[in-house]
Amino acid sequence: MSKKILLALAFAAPTLAACTTMSNTDASTAFGAATGAGLGYLTADALGSSDEWKVLATLGGAAAGSMVAKNTNSATCAYSNGDGTYYTAPCP
């Protein structure tokens, strides 16, 4: 397990260095995607999923994390119409 952590840290340092020239919105989106990917992977790993499911959970977590970050930056929330569709409006 420690090899995985060291490998992740080795890739994280250059990635974080690249964030110094990003706007706040871009940095927030990148952070949300990274956090979502990590949580997706950890959840799949904790459930004992196969490698294929871990990849899917990581990608899904990254997508969800980036969308949450974008919505947080724009201060909009999604509301259900009750028929499977939704609309966005300012958050309360």
Concise structural overview:
The protein has 92 residues and is mostly helical. The chain has 3 helices and 2 strands; from the N terminus they run H-H-H-E-E.
Q: What's the gyration radius in Å?
A: 16 Å
Content-based structural category: mainly alpha
Total separate domains? 1
Secondary-structure element pattern, one letter each: HHHEE
Distance between the termini: 43 Å
What low-confidence regions span 5 or more consecutive residues with pLDDT below 50? none
Major sheet description: 2 strands, antiparallel
Strand order of the largest sheet: 1-2
Number of E-state strands: 2
Count of alpha/pi helices: 3
Oligomer: single chain
Principal-axes geometry comes out as flat
Strand content: 5-15%
Mean pLDDT: 77
Helix amount: 55-70%
Protein name: 17 kDa surface antigen
Organism: Celeribacter persicus
Keywords: Signal
Signal peptide: 1-17
Structure characterization notes:
It comes from Celeribacter persicus. This is 17 kDa surface antigen. One of its GO terms (cellular component) is cell outer membrane. This protein is mainly alpha-helical and 92 residues long. The protein has one domain. It has 3 helices and 2 strands, in the order H-H-H-E-E. A two-stranded antiparallel sheet has the order 1-2. Helix 2 runs antiparallel to helix 3. The longest helix is centred in the C-terminal third of the chain and has 24 residues. The protein is flat, with a radius of gyration of 16 Å. The protein starts with a helix and ends with a strand.
